[in-house]
Amino acid sequence: MECEGDDPPCGVCPACRKVLRDIHPDVITVRDPDHKNIAIEVLRSVRSDAYILPNEGRRKIYLFPDCALLDPKGQNVLLKVLEEGPPHAAFLFCAESSALLLPTIRSRCVEWRLSPPSQSSAADSDARQLCELLCTGKAADMAAFFARLENSKIEREALRLLLSDARDLVCAALAVSCGGSGNDPLLRQLVDRLGRRRLSVLADTLGDFIRQCGYNVGVGHLTGALTVALAP
After folding, report:
1. pLDDT per residue as tens digits for the range 66-90
2. Does 6 map to a domain?
3. Do 154 and 219 touch, CB atoms closer than 8 A?
4. What is the C-alpha separation between 64 and 51, in angstroms, rounded?
5. For the chain, first and last CA: distance in Å?
6. How wide is the angle at C-alpha 71 spanned by C-alphas 68 and 75, nearest 5°?
7. Is 81 within the bounds of a domain?
């Protein structure tokens, strides 16, 4: 959107170089390090700033690198500028799951799904983190993990996808324990720490909660029950 070359993005024009160095005056990353979630005041400032013309680029672009930090009230603050804002303003919302954004926000956006991450780049995903916590067997860390999910206002569908990914890893580890192959170090860790019987129980337990995510059950109830059910 800011590239000045003939075949954008060229990566070498002055505008591209500024964007890549994070010094372009019209590409703004929205952060709020002083608060757990992005504060309403910060979002109101973004909303007002969007109506000011760009300094030197064709567009004014606002990047939200982690939409888990945007609570529903904050998203509603941005709704009007997304719907009726000036043509030069663009907003890029980054999220592991589109379910983190309100339907009213999603309906005003074009969704761009990235390619599935490789095994190495997925190492920090919530599903893998959950499996790592199952290996360590620390109940307090497990409780903190699910409390974080609840505080991030995760929706049932996003929770269901997370649990499905975790169950896939547990089932893959169960296959390894029965002689199957697997190059992921996490699978071997699950086998060594938990054993075949425990893995089988966990696969069934995760399957039960995946089904519960399809019912009209509060996420807080699910995360609380998961903390107890997955504890060693």
Report:
1. 998 999 999 999 999 999 999 999 9
2. no
3. yes
4. 18
5. 51
6. 105
7. yes
